[in-house]
Amino acid sequence: MKSNIVLIGMTGSGKTTIGKQLSERLSMPFIDIDHYIEQTEKQTIPELFAVSEAHFREIEAAACQNLAAQQQRTVLSCGGGVVLNQLNIQAFRKTGWIILLDRPIEQIVQDIQTEHRPLLKSGTERLYQLYQERKDLYTEAADIIISNTSSLEHVLNKIEKQLPASIISK
Ligand SMILES: Nc1ncnc2c1ncn2[C@@H]1O[C@H](COP(=O)(O)OP(=O)(O)OP(=O)(O)O)[C@@H](O)[C@H]1O
Ligand SMILES: O=C(O)C1=C[C@@H](O)[C@@H](O)[C@H](O)C1
Ligand SMILES: [Mg+2]
Q: In the record, which residues are listed under signal peptide (predicted)?
């Protein structure tokens, strides 16, 4: 039975913020996969990227596939590039519901601090480029698409309404 909730979306789309609050509402543990990788590798994401992006992606894939197999009734917030590897998505789909947080790039740009996001070091133009490259991958991977354009409270209510009763009623 699928029991995890997996949040995907562009960097800055709200996965960590919304994931934490959703996990509290549903009394489920929360794991931010970027944070999990930093803890288990004892290195920051920028340090892992400094080796190479491929090095980071390999570690990310192992973390995603292990967590998908091991966790139950857990809210998992993914890194923005999780959809680049279909094995990650296949693993998540087996044990959870994949929710895409869809947030306009203009709103993302207003909020994110680029220094903590290695792919955005060169500026926000890269964000538009990444969106073009990934938008189809995000929508194809998602079981549920949620537009994150209103208050956090409103977005959380919308997510709860779309989740299957088996997750909500526990
Ligand atoms: N609905 C919203 N209303 C107000 N602020 C929001 C909303 N959604 C997200 N934010 C803000 O946008 C910023 C980015 O959100 P967050 O860090 O959760 O994104 P993320 O998807 O986890 O990004 P990354 O993939 O880089 O980790 C945060 O400052 C967060 O508070
Ligand atoms: O969009 C991306 O490819 C990334 C997003 C972050 O969450 C991190 O996982 C990392 O910085 C890569
Ligand atoms: Mg995050």
A: none
152 Cβ inside 6 Å of ligand 1: yes
On whether the pTM is more than 0.90, the answer is yes
Examine the predicted complex and report whether its ipTM is higher than 0.90.
yes
Q: Is 52 helix (H, G, I), strand (E, B) or coil?
A: coil
Interatomic CA distance for residues 109 and 127, integer angstroms: 8
Q: What spacing in Å lies between the alpha carbon of 165 and ligand 2's midpoint?
A: 31
Pairing of β 30-32 and β 96-102: unpaired
Residue 78's SS3 state is coil
Quote the ligand 1 centre to 103 CA distance (angstroms). Answer: 9
> What Rg do the C-alpha atoms of the chain give, in angstroms?
15
Report CA 86 to chain centroid distance, whole Å: 14
| Ordered domains of the chain (ranges, CATH) | 4-163 (3.40.50.300)
Residues near 68 by beta carbon (within 8 Å), at least 6 away in sequence: 4, 6, 76, 88, 91, 92, 94, 95, 96
Nearest CA to ligand 1 atom 8: 14
User: What confidence score (pLDDT) does residue 124 get?
Assistant: 76
